[in-house]
Amino acid sequence: MTAELARDPSSLVFLELGEALRRVGQLDAASRVLVSGLEQHPDLIGGRDLYARVLVDKGEYARAAQVWGTVLERDARHVGAHKGLGFVSFRGGDLDGALEHLELALAADPTDQSVISALRTVRDAAQELQAEVAPTDAGEDPLFAGLEGAEQGLLLVDDRGRVLGGRLLDRGGREVSEAVAAYLAGAAQEADRTARMLGLGEWRWIVAEGPEANVYVTPPTPETLLLILRDQSVPSGRLAMLAERAGAVARAWLEGQRL
Amino acid sequence: MTTRFRRALDNVTRVRGVRGAMLVAGDDGLIVAESLMEGVRGNAVAALAASLHKRFRQSMDAGAAGAPHFLHLQGDGGTLIVVPAPDGILVVAVGDPNMNVGLVRLEMLRAAEGLT
């Protein structure tokens, strides 16, 4: 094939040679043959598709996507290009894009088993991702998203007892944020008064242990209160560490609200 | 002050850094018994500790956490701890910011148990 191509550079044998070189892993040689052949036959979309697959094998995903894009400009139903773009999208974490291309590929050729298999893989991945994300969407407050217990045991309150962010649920799963916030503001005022009148300086935090849960309260800023509610298995030292992280998040969030 | 009360409070005040310990009526914040270092204002400590405990009890009830059986306020310049005992009595301790809270807590819980 090499000799034939040397004899006639316009020969279509470059497709066969490029594929053979790709199969044996000689990717640079395959790339050179295909680029050279496509200079002779720029409208040969089968050649572009093959060149894009070589680029994928070389790890040049963005460039491969560009080449497949040019294939679709010429043939919007090209199965190879949709399969390739589906793969590149999936690899880049774009599951929606991957599904879209693979479904278009399947529409173009419903018998292609490789497309059916790829679609199954991407759909499974999308379902797994949705299952992981769903609890966050359902319950976790965006202010404390990612922090331990953000969905049920972190609350930021202003000094007048209004909820600013976070969420508290009791053991039965009942929302108690508003009620706790209302009482907490009064408790914090009492803490301030107590610390001042007894010469204890500025109050930094209060830990209260109850029969059902432990509570940690601290003012991340002079105008706000952060409350952490946890079951009794969580020691106060861990509550303090969590409060430090949540306090930093709250301060950054409050700063953002003022801008 | 009865010997029983005195003994309960002495075990608390013996811990390094504790400035004073008291038994306080939780309802009205009045002193039942006290063992305080000079300069500690017993009436203020009793009233404020009782009020603080009451406020936190309300907050924790609202959160279904139950009435607090240990309350620790940490300030830059000192520490206040409240432990409820039977019959509406509160055991209260006030001390330095770096006092051994673990030991104080232990003695206060013992004191509270001793009042039964």
Task: Tell me about this structure.
- The complex is a heterodimer of chains A (259) and B (116).
- Chain A has helices at residues 2-7, 13-23, 27-40, 45-57, 61-74, 79-91, 95-108, 113-139, 177-197, 236-258, and strands at 153-158, 163-168, 203-209, 214-218, 224-230.
- Chain A is rod-shaped.
- In chain A, α3 (27-40) runs antiparallel to α4 (45-57) and α4 (45-57) runs antiparallel to α5.
- Chain A has two domains: 2-137, Serine Threonine Protein Phosphatase 5, Tetratricopeptide repeat, CATH 1.25.40.10; 142-258, 2-Layer Sandwich (Beta-Lactamase).
- With 259 residues, chain A is an alpha+beta fold.
- In chain A, 60% of the residues lie in helices and 12% in strands.
- By secondary structure, chain B is an alpha+beta fold.
- Chain B has a single domain, classed as Beta-Lactamase (2-Layer Sandwich), CATH 3.30.450.
- Chain B contains three helices and five strands; from the N terminus they run αββαβββα.
- A five-stranded antiparallel sheet of chain B has the order 2-1-5-4-3, with helices on both faces.
- In chain B, a hairpin with a 3-residue loop joins β3 (70-75) and β4 (79-84).
- The longest helix of chain B has 21 residues, at 42-62.
- The chains are: A alpha+beta (259), B alpha+beta (116).
- At the A-B interface, α9 and β3 of A face α2 and β3 of B.
- β3 of chain A pairs antiparallel with β3 (70-75) of chain B, so a sheet runs across the interface.
Task: Supply database-style keywords.
heterodimer, A: 259 residues, alpha+beta, Serine Threonine Protein Phosphatase 5, Tetratricopeptide repeat, Beta-Lactamase, five-stranded antiparallel beta sheet, 10 helices, 5 strands, rod-shaped, B: 116 residues
